[in-house]
Amino acid sequence: MNLNISSSTQIKIFGVILGVLVVSVFATLQHIMIFGVIKPNAYIIPAIVGSLSGFFIATWFSKLIEAKKEVENSHNRLKMILEGTEIGLWDWNPQTNDVKFDEQWCQLLGYSLEEIEPHFNSWESRVHPDDLQQCYKDIERYMNGETEFYSNVHRMKHKDGHWVYILDRGQIVEHDENNQPISFTGTHTDITHLKEVEQELEDSNKKLKRLTLIDGLTGLSNRRALQEYLIKEWAHWQRQQTPFSILMIDLDCFKDFNDTYGHVAGDDCLKQVANVLSTNVKRTNDIAARFGGEEFLIMLSGINSRDAIKIAEEIRTDIQNLAIPHSTSCCYSTVTVSIGVSSCDSDKPCDSYQHTIEEADKALYQAKEQGRNQTALYQY
């Protein structure tokens, strides 16, 4: 700072001296040509005028130098910031489609400045085809005054072939005499790493949500997932009048099984039964869930009561064919299930999915009352 003040002072002193000399020399020549003599008192006014003129000119010149240095310093600071934050600059003339790119802009895509043509197509041709239309829309919205500035995130192709996520922001900074934009200036920022982190977080959240909707023991949907599914699908069933059926499944005498073989064997038994249910419920619009303890629920979309009974019998038979020993069973020598079925179709409309579940539960009770290891359809 002291060096700058000293330099400015020196310039002003030099300007005063130079001003005095120039004006004095001019006054001397003027007196010789007009009067033929030189009078000492004739230098008073020229000296004052010369010193003041020299001082003001030197001051102006000093400020000009300082302003130039400040511009250079600002430019260097901006350059350091842009390089440190990996931000590239562009300046587009919408009238000619000429674009000025800086070196950092080119380096974001793996190029040198000499390899990039100063034209709009240099950007346009490198934007991912799936992202280009949205870029145009965001530019148009800004130019129409719908947004305060242009902002868009899109992918651009790197020189080595991979895609780079770019945050593109800009504003119009100059218009022509017809108020048409001639300088649309902005920045490019590489946010690929942020996008990768964002994707990882999204994947983690999805995985976490899946875990909260899955029964930890059997791998089937839990009651929370079932509830969300039923709420979502109920409106569809009402709107489309699509039939659906609900199967309530309960392992026969399972408390006796646990008492005889232990809870570890009981858990393994539940897993095997759940695997049979998963095998028989493959369609994406159906769901098999652990309803609680040794009880399971299956919802079959588009299935009427006749087909639901057939599917229930296949499931009952497949579980019996597992041949899991159950020496203390109250109805059979191996693990079996009882199944209650209720449907909502043209033959039997229903007013809610909760009501259909209640009916399936009543049918399950009927199957148990009739001797277990069988399927019962709700009779209304």
TrEMBL record:
What InterPro entries has UniProt attached to this entry?
Diguanylate_Cyclase, GGDEF_dom, Nucleotide_cyclase, PAC, PAS, PAS-assoc_C, PAS-like_dom_sf, PAS_fold_3
**Mind listing the UniProt keywords for this protein, alphabetically?**
Membrane, Transmembrane, Transmembrane helix
Which reaction is the catalytic activity of this chain?
Answer: 2 GTP = 3',3'-c-di-GMP + 2 diphosphate
Among Pfam families, the record links this protein to: GGDEF, PAS_3
| Gene source species | Thiomicrorhabdus lithotrophica
Enzyme Commission designation = 2.7.7.65
Q: Which domain of life is it from?
A: Bacteria
TM spans, by residue?
A: 12-37, 43-61
Per UniProt, residues of the PAC domain are 150-203
**Domain PAS, first and last residues per copy:** 74-146
Q: Give every GGDEF domain span.
A: 242-380
The name of this protein is diguanylate cyclase
